[in-house]
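Q: My collaborator sent me two sequences in one message, no labels, and asked for predicted structures for both. Can we handle them in order? The first one she listed is below.
A: Yes, handling them in the order given. First sequence, followed by its structure tokens:
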Amino acid sequence: MPLLEVMLQLEQAVKQGLPAGIALVTDPEGRLIGTITDGDIRRASARHRSFDLPARQVMNASPIFFPDHYSFRQILEALPEKLKASGRKSRRFLGKIVLVDDRQRPQRVLPYHQLWEQRVALHRHIVVLGMGYVGFTLALILAEHGFYVTGFDVQPGLIEQLQQGRAHIHERGLDVIFHRQLNHHFFPASQMPEDGEVYIIAVGTPLAGNGQKKPDLRYLESAAEMVGRVLRRGDLVVLRSTVPVGSSREVVLPILERESGLKGGVDFFLSFAPERTAEGKALEELRNLPQLIGGLTEESVEATAAMFRDITPTIVRLDSLEQAEIAKLLNNSFRDLVFSFSNQVAQLAALYNVDIVRTIKAANQGYPRNPIPLPSPGVGGPCLTKDPYIFSAAAEKAGIEQPLFLHGRSINEQMTGFVVKRLFDAFRQMKKDLRSVLVCGLAFKGEPETGDLRNSTSIDIAHELLQKGVEVRAHDPVASHEEIKAFGLSPVDLPEGYKNADAVLFLNNHRSYRDTLFEEVLPLMTSTPVVFDTWRLFEPEEVLAAGDCVYLGLSFQR
């Protein structure tokens, strides 16, 4: 192609919103083989006094490019060797850098100055608002990757605990990172810093306690007000909390603009980058899960991506704040819904005394489509119990009268009563009174392990048994006795907890329970005790062979 035609192409590219001042030369397979910049054109035309030169003669045949999955830090660290390999002694004429896929096909063009701006961003002050599970784990991972992080929370007692080096959540590997970064890159604070440059809002958005289960945005609004009061031009605000669709634009943005006097998208950046980690694997998933980002503007997305690129290998750029908000709610609401299918099927199977776990495994075996999850004694935790209600708020706006999310949530919430009823029915059939039970597994899930007792169906089942006059002893392999007592239950150690119990209920799937030796614990219990295996941790035949007892599953009895 003649050089004059290249110049016309460059002009058209700018009109189409493409990067200015650079043309990419590719082979027939689309692989990058050269670049032509404005500077290349000026130098060639001055040397040859002609615009009829072919592009091949003018192009730089040793362009600087990097894999698209590289973080800015990786690019800057590898750049000196790239310059040396291409015969360049300096970065003097390096205006842009091309990012390519694994087949060397161009994906994006980065201005060189943006790299240095983002490299400097590693030294920017990040303030994470909310030191709950989401905020605390993210703050530590950011600190571990070299960012200067203040962890802010309005609870002075919590901040004092962190300042003393005592973590308030259980997570594999967390204590090591926490003690390494405390007062190094991570600084807990109960006073809102005024010199932050990136503000990540990770406060809770609970459901209102008025029986209607509507999202309560008071903590979110308060956090936005605090950020707005200290917001300056060029700052970035990242919303991490789970919110109803539209909240970033309709709730957070107006507060930030009102409190700061600045204009979003012009004076400051705003994005929604949802948390999607599973408790027990948060530190691992923060590094490995794709990070979704939706922004008020494209610049807001890129500013946020620049921060997360140093943490996770995959950035998924979305078209809007609302798209990112919906994407967040999709995962948890879908999981809750498919679990409700299995839980309702378990209730149906109980009518026929059918082992539903073995039945589902048979249905899934060798069948490549839509694997069915196994049932459980309910779906708990701080996310799956809340997100369907938050998603339903958008469904109601859309005029959907009976959101599917709420129907699935209702089924899962009914499992608590279903479990209690099955236990009493078993004792009624045995013509025996139920006086004392041992409840094993209080955290809302056992694998990956957590000590989080919030919204745990195990706690709900234990409380319902207490209300029916049953003595309840509680054990959890992760949660402490103090945490169990805080929920109004009597903690015990094993095997002492088995003594004179009429039944043992395994209510989460922690791996430690699989090692239970029923030959040793059944003799400690009353005559013909009930082993209620709600997670199908054991083979019924093996439990029954260990001694005189009744094996009870969610859908069958032996």
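Q: And the one she listed second?
A: Here it is, processed independently of the first:
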Amino acid sequence: MKFSMKFDQISGQKYIAVNKRGFALLMDPIINKGSAFTNREREELDLHGLLPPVASTMQIQLDRTYENYSAKTNNLQKYIYLTGLHDRNETLYYRLLYEHIDEMMPIVYTPVVGDACCRFSHIFRRPRGIYISYQDRNHIEKNLINSGITNPSIIVVTDGERILGLGDQGIGGMGISIGKLCLYTLCAGVGPYSTLPITLDVGTDNEERLADTLYMGLRHKRIRGEEYQDFIDKFVAAVQKVFPSVILQWEDFLKANAIKQLARFRNKLCTFNDDIQGTAGVVVAGLFGALRITGKTMKDQRILVAGAGASAQGISDLIVSALMEDGFSKEEAIKRIWTVDSKGLVTKDRLNLEDFKATYAREVDEISTYQCHDRSHITIAEIIANIKPTVLIGTSGTPGTFSEEVVRAMAKVNERPIIFPLSNPTSKCECVPEDAIRWSEGRAIVATGSPFDPVFYNGKRYRIGQCNNAFIFPGIGLGLSVSRATRVTDGTFLESAKALAAQVTAQDISEGAVFPELKRIRECSKFVACATIRRAVKDGHADAEILENVEGTVEHAMWFPSYLPVRYEE
């Protein structure tokens, strides 16, 4: 069905013009208002008899849907219910999420979306997005055209190999692409009719999925090497041809592929990787917030990163940029960061180090000065005792990495240790906030990747700020789309981090939280979008004319989930 947004020349009111009547309207989730179609609309659009006779208000619909949602007995059932609503009535879906954002955002995204991706082939109801399999490698343009979207603003694409901390989920990765785009709309007002989730199916190495009779993806091992890269190249070429102005976000690719594709295409189209760059932006924003509590500057920080994946690289690189802006040379900034992987502290004597690890690897001579029991296997607590980091960041995906010994070591060398256990879903978190606060005797500044309830310790309430990429990437996507930017730079994420940190209030700080409350996320996204636009103009990737009224332009562009009149026009 074709539809368009128009303005009534007499009243100035916005409305939706459609070219069909009757039952087809009720099947289109963008247009459908269900029982909220007015009597006038029912008459004009041939809907009488297709709906119960009494028109509902949106509030009545919200009460009804929330009652049904609340009746579900577990989180996966709630996810399935919300997915069904999403497929029927997008405006009501997003309004329900907006009204209950703290409760429902963890359902439609982390951590529950991880379970949904694992169960994707078992809970599949209705198609959404575009699936491009390796078998379709010579027909990718046709697949994209089949989406029915002529000019999408944002694509989120995954190949499903590294879904959150759950690994290879194959075709189930579509749940991540859908969920991510849901947050673009919920958190930044990017129009739901202009987003496109895509999954690239090149097979899976997950034996459980391959043995599952209900699995809906290709039943073979993953295509790799030159064949894989050729497929990715064809996909990007097709996107550039069919959707030349779209923003392409890479999501949940294996570390090596994520890094490679970002480097390969970042100077060819408007593209970024949220796992690498978005995570970095929100972490650096959290550090800026934490420094308001400690009273220190970025130049005072020494950072230990536990985990050496794509997100760790992005975080480390953006911290280097922040340190350089504070006066360090690049070499001096790099020396302020230590990395730990599954083999321990990353040092230069290791063979075949990846580029990222080689950049931040420590000299062997430095290690020889450490006081420890066994230099061949230095524990994280011993590393902390020797290098005295002010910041401990976890991206390891290994629960228990930040043990009591580790947290107490941080508390011993810092009055206010900054501890960010960021791995998600919750089951992968390096430590839970309650333990970090208790083991540090209430002195740790904690932010987590997954949502946690407030912690009460010695009569004080600690609100746990969520270091959630949703504070960064939706606003960046909105800003890129509004400004029609042609490229995304590292500076975009540093400016966005500053814009987000500026939204942390004195009340947030008093509660020990280094991020705003989730209910303010749309407001935060507006400021991130404005920062993104200003940086795009500064970098020469957007027209300077947009700066004449950047705040007003962004605010006007933000879609809000409320019903518009629907009219029939041939």
